[in-house]
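User: Assemble these into one structure.

Assistant: Restating your components, then the assembled model:
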Amino acid sequence: MPENTPTRALRLGVAGPVGTGKSSLIATVCRSLADELRLGVITNDIYTDEDARFLRSAGVLEPERIRAVETGACPHTAIRDDITTNLLAAEDLERDFAPLDVVLIESGGDNLTATFSPALVDAQIFVLDVAGGGDVARKGGPGIGRADLLVVNKTDLAPYVGVDVPQMVADASVARQGRAVLALSRSDAASVAELRAWVLSVLESHRRGTHVPQDPGPMAPHFHADEEQPEGGFVHTHDEKIGDEHHASAPHHVHSHSDSRK
Ligand SMILES: Nc1nc2c(ncn2[C@@H]2O[C@H](COP(=O)(O)OP(=O)(O)OP(=O)(O)O)[C@@H](O)[C@H]2O)c(=O)[nH]1
């Protein structure tokens, strides 16, 4: 490769349950790095572009650098099983604003099991918050166990919800067999500085060519609310093999995995 040829931007996924603070974390990363890095953001929402609008209104980046993907019924499908729309959005963003350093991709608010495909992102952050309860970190699952970074977010709320943050971080570290865990609050400058340093260190290894994208693994079986189902929803699993066939033959928003609907 000729000298000074820019490498592709680092693609960094941010996943986690609804409302744990994914958009806010992305806004925090943008605020702390926008002066020194060229950034872009892609959001995934089921039927709206609400997260993209929130980030544009936060004024952390030029609005054109924030793009929305509408995923249809199952947000995790667009970040794991058929990533075409997200890949195209990332490539468009990188072409339109070349060269970019980092593209942050936010998953749709989802349950505990959603993870990004390593074909879409180079590294991923999984976000929990203290308001979800101190024992969530112990429950494990692919994102909690094997994302590149687990964030225990909104630590400023811990005294109000009776959560022992050091204990929650210790439990998470055990569940993650020592992988990185960060206790974060957007109002705690020291924790924001740690998040910023983590992003910079991953970017540095990406640029050196030493960063290896990890696959946290397929989603565990999980429940989907569906008011047309007799029990108010259904449990389904993502069979990787079926997922591959689906990838080859169907648009990204059609869901065709094995599930327990009768
Ligand atoms: N106290 C406190 N509140 C926070 C923090 N970060 C985010 N929030 C609040 O938590 C709520 C949810 O934050 P979002 O960033 O929208 O969460 P999200 O995970 O992107 O939500 P979805 O996209 O709906 O899944 C908002 O009211 C935020 O203001 C934090 O560090 N401390």
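Residues 18-24, 51, 109, 153-154, 156-157, 185-186 surround guanosine-5'-triphosphate (CB under 6 Å).
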